[in-house]
Design a protein that fits this description.
Length: 193
């Protein structure tokens, strides 16, 4: 079993490899990848993702890392819709659980015009950008990782995508190593543990 630091060090050469960036495999697989890690390592992974984004974006002209923190996307959309204060008031008056469905409806999750998917797809340059999805644990249970991947599957086919996942990915996604999400077989493990 590799240490976290060794696995993190292997990300940069992997994603800069031309074969990684050019797309699909021999069976026409989608270019989606998952870097799973122990949730206790969240802060180290966040720091390394920021480091990679800054380093690659400052050093290369032909590739760019575009990071999307799912939790921050939720907050930005709610702010744009002038709904964030209402959500906070609703949460204080009721419970955290009571705001989940109203937020999902506001974000139009899994519907045509899904605002989270729209924010991601409108911000990328095909064939240049590598998409990093972060904030998976912070966005749960409003956004589920398999839902985002499934919805992006039909929208992104010319950019590699890496989801940084606090949990386990074998033949299924297990958030925090405990919460089983729907299976997602189309993604590959970026770096084995």
């Amino acid at each position: 079993m590799m240490t976290l630091n060794k696995r993190l060090d292997l990300i940069e050469p992997k994603i800069l490899d031309k074969s990684f960036r050019t797309g699909r495999g021999t069976a026409n697989e989608i270019n989606f990848w998952i870097f799973d890690y122990d949730p206790a390592d969240e802060m180290a992974v966040r720091a390394h993702v920021s480091y990679l984004e800054q380093r690659i974006n400052n050093q290369y002209d032909d590739v760019r890392i575009v990071q999307f923190d799912l939790y921050k996307l939720i907050l930005n959309v709610l702010r744009e819709k002038n709904y964030l204060d209402k959500v906070m008031q609703m949460e204080q008056a009721k419970t955290s659980h009571a705001i989940i469905n109203p937020i999902k409806k506001t974000l139009r999750l899994t519907l045509d015009g899904d605002l989270i998917i729209g924010k991601i797809t409108e911000s990328i340059v095909p064939e240049r950008d590598i998409i990093f999805l972060t904030g998976v644990g912070k966005a749960w249970p409003i956004i589920r990782s398999h839902t985002v991947l499934n919805n992006l599957h039909s929208k992104i086919d010319r950019n590699p995508l890496v989801m940084f996942f606090p949990g386990d990915y074998t033949n299924e996604l297990r958030l925090f190593g405990e919460i089983t999400d729907d299976n997602y077989y189309r993604a590959f493990k970026l770096i084995e543990r």
